[in-house]
Amino acid sequence: MTHPHPAPATSRTTDPATLYADLVPHLEPPARAWLDRALEEAAAQPGVHGPLAVWELRLAEAGRRCGHAHADTARVLILHAARADTEALGRVYSQGTAAERRAVLHSLPLLVDGPGALPLVEDALRTNDTRLVAAAVGPYAARHLPAHLWRHAVLKCLFTGVPVAGIADLERRALGDAELARMLGDHAAERTAAGRSVPADLNRVLALTDPTATPPARPADHGPHGTEGTEGKES
Amino acid sequence: MRIFDPHIHMTSRTTDDYRAMHAAGVRAVVEPSFWLGQPRTSPHSFLDYFDSLLGWEPFRAAQYGIAHHCTIALNPKEANDPRCAPVLDELPRYLVKDQVVAVGEIGYDSMTPAEDTALAAQLQLAADHGLPALVHTPHRDKLAGLRRTLDAVRASALPPERVLVDHLNETTVKEAKDSGCWLGFSVYPDTKMDEERMVTVLRTYGPEQVLVNSAADWGHSDPLKTRRVGDLMLARGFTDDDVDRVLWRNPVAFYGLSGRLDLDVAAPDPTHEGNSVLRGGE
């Protein structure tokens, strides 16, 4: 991978072939063999079988097999190979470690068309684990998260120090969002009143809400399911 | 001095403890699942707890530069409650997780038939999952409890060199050592074992296969007891290498039997920015 550990490489790239091609040069031969076998097994035996499906076992052990720096991508590939649907993703999320939950969040733009997996995003946004919060504000949230929850997600990133540069489609969703601007302004006032500094990221987002700002081009990497999102600022 | 606390219940500790532990040299901990003081009444209560040991707690630890692993089990005390025992059926899906480095704490509390059943079942689970086992020895009737524990280990599929018997003291250390198991000592402010006694035990029985822990929890306990033991060992003539062996290499060797120990604490990544645990109202 060209992405630094443990940046959510997979939140930006939703093409599994590219993910795989970027990952394998970084894997030791045993890890690569393990991953290839895991992907074959997942493709051959997706779904629910036995007390623990083989692909779910592979999902759990990806960290120790591939190394933690590569586990996010390996897990996304396994979820894709297993053709995990919203129900399966919900199950492995709820039964997963924080690392597995992060991988499920990264997989959402790849595997889920509609807003059905939003409860997972909302769950992650309720945590104070910044790894989960960062993974929750990827392209899937950009596409489907309703405006109120999306604004609170932006604020939560500011509160917890998750860089807003990691919020997918920030420029497009923030543009002209007067309510977000008000919330940011109030937060800045609260910080100033307390004698505390205003995070640079806050001013950055605030500038993006300016309706006279240049609208960003719609990103091209919106996933394999097209750009059906209509989640504009007032959705 | 690098320190691995092989038994500490961080769920019950504050972030200030993490900071103090790091300052004292603690770079790795194992948090065994145990009871929480208030008895649980259903398996779901366990599952939320296990999820915390695999999610929130490693996140907290990483922010202070400490690698966090855990052991998963139905503890002996709650094995006696038929409302809790069904959690045994949920354990296999937890025992495959990356950060689970042993089955534990298992063992005896009151030495009941229900505890016999849970101990045997979980020793088998350890064997099935390629994991070692952390075995608690009882506080009451300790020597008899140790003997019954060692009998259960001998009757199991798990070889003694994959078992750590914990909370040992002067009356139980010899038989535990003769069994071939690893030897755990919990150093407490008042009870179990103190630093002076610990150093005497080390002088008598040697540092081989000995692990020292704080077992700090919600009771009167001290997460820096590992450091105190290291300091006293040096003051009493042990070498730096002896200290490193007891406080680092032995726990690494024991939990390393799982093949899952990962001691590279991820430096705070770009999303952390060195923040302390934030509450969203910072």
Automatic annotation (TrEMBL), chain A:
Domain of life the protein comes from: Bacteria
InterPro entries in UniProt: EboA_dom
Residue spans of biased composition, Basic and acidic residues class: 219-235
Region (Disordered): 209-235
Protein name, as recorded: EboA domain-containing protein
Lineage: Bacteria, Bacillati, Actinomycetota, Actinomycetes, Kitasatosporales
UniProtKB/TrEMBL annotation, chain B:
GO molecular function: hydrolase activity, acting on ester bonds; metal ion binding
Keywords: Hydrolase, Metal-binding
Gene3D superfamilies: Metal-dependent hydrolases
InterPro entries noted in UniProt: Metal_Hydrolase, TatD-like, UCP005295
Highest taxon listed in the record's lineage: Bacteria
Pfam families: TatD_DNase
Family: Belongs to the metallo-dependent hydrolases superfamily.
Name the record gives this protein: TatD family hydrolase
Annotated source species: Streptomyces doudnae
